[in-house]
Amino acid sequence: MTKSLLTDASRRLDRALKYVTISEDAAERLKAPKASLKVSIPVRMDDGSLKVFEGYRVHFDDTRGPTKGGIRFHPQVTLDEVQSLAFWMTFKCAALNIPFGGAKGGVTLNPKELSKAELERLSRGYIDAIANFIGPDTDIPAPDVYTNPMIMGWMMDQYSIIRQQRSPAVITGKPVALGGSLGRSTATGTGAFYVLEAMMEHLSNKRSGKQPSSPKTVAVQGFGNAGAVVARHLFDAGYTIVAVSDSRGGIYTPNGLDIPSIQKFKADTRSVKAVYCDGSVCNLVEHEVITNDTLLSLDVDILIPAALENQITAANADAIQARYIFEVANGPISTDADDILEAKGITVFPDILVNAGGVTVSYFEWVQNRSGLYWTLDEVNQRLKKQIVAAADTIWHIAQTHKTSVRTAAYIHALNSLGAAMDARGTRADYVSGNRE
Ligand code: NAD
Question: Where do the catalytic residues lie (predicted)?
Fold first, then answer.
């Protein structure tokens, strides 16, 4: 039987709990989602037939505010996956001090097999099915794997039709023309770059000249929305990106890939084929075609998993040679693999910090929608940098103080703020049993 992703995710909590003083009640409540909705979405296909798709929306915890989390369209979406993604969102929002709880949604399908019109009907059908489970003050979706601003625009429109009022704040990651925030589409990759730069500075202060080399070579698994943007920032900052990949495989060159050309090729062709260099980009550099497994085990300074969860497990962790791993994807490393990597001296910077730029700018989008005042790109990026670097610094210092992994430190930080909110809110049970003074 395959191990539950949520069970594995919860093991991270157990490790952090011994460093925090939150009540046992609060800790217990954080082990299971508050509510999970499973829906059927009937969609009229272009050939006239009717197909029924399965979808989910999960609220994990709403103590710190309305729940927040993306919607994934992927053939491997299951309730367990959506619940674990909602768990991570809860801790991510708490770690970043964003006034939201955690949620996630998903539909089990391969969106590449649907026409644009079918995809729009499916997206609107999903909102019809979950409309009473979401709302600007209750639960606010956003994009995730294989969903994008166009889909968020359709979903916002459908929700507004149902409610008979324009409701931009119900969903984030919308097209800018429909109330989306500038900088949202690049926020995850940009935030990851800010975290990486901040952590490199801490590491270099810690080394204090003992180790001369600063990290320069990078491999990125998953050249999508998040992975391509972080690759581009690193390329512009002078790092050598030796390998990138997508779901079908990757390319490698020790001299470094020309990331802007790969991005342009991908944008022009709208095809993930771009990373295969079967067009003009191929000729820019000599390269070798590699598998995703090979990419993960390359001898690089920095490895960036930016595709899906469970990419590094006990089965392949021994083969990992990178010095540092920055988790841009959600949950790319299993808990067993964490232990193996730690024993090998590899430092892992966790998803709930590294990829939190997306939800941070989603929060900014929600604020802008509710106030009606829109910010410049510079304003968005400055606020993003301030918020994510503050969290990175705090988490780094907690890791140094308690001598824990950076992941455990991130959970300690998140748990402290979640526990404080839970205890401050009290529980009805306490009143009923007369426990209160
Ligand atoms: P995306 O759909 O834009 O890109 C995903 C990329 O991964 C694609 O290039 C795809 O081909 C590739 N991929 C899929 N399976 C793969 C495999 N087995 N091996 C290698 N590559 C594979 O999605 P995204 O928005 O960039 O999300 C990527 C990850 O980042 C996900 O884990 C997501 O949850 C996480 N994330 C995204 C955001 C965001 O704002 N987009 C925010 C936080 C976290």
Answer: 104
pLDDT digits (tens, 9 = 90+) for 72-93: 999 999 999 999 999 999 999 9
Q: What is the mean pLDDT of residues 148-156?
A: 97
Report the separation in Å between the CA atom of 221 and the middle of ligand 1, taken as the mean of its atom positions: 9
Q: Which residues contact 424 (CB under 8 A, 6 or more apart)?
A: none
What integer pLDDT is reported at residue 378 of this predicted model?
98
Annotation says 104 is catalytic:
yes
Six-digit token string for 175: 């097209």
d(CA 274, CA 264): 9
Shared fold status for 32-180 and 187-354: yes
What per-residue confidence (pLDDT) applies to 429?
Answer: 57
HSE toward the beta carbon, residue 356, CA cutoff 13 A:
34
User: Which residue's CA is the closest to the ligand 1 atom numbered 13?
Assistant: 247
Report the CATH number of the 32-180 domain.
3.40.50.10860
Catalytic residue among 104, 174, 266, 385: 104
Q: Give the pLDDT confidence score for residue 432 in this predicted structure.
A: 53
Class of domain 187-354: alpha beta
For ligand 1, mutation pick of 188, 221, 252, 265 (most atoms within 8 Å of CB): 188
- Domain regions of the chain by residue span: 32-180, 187-354
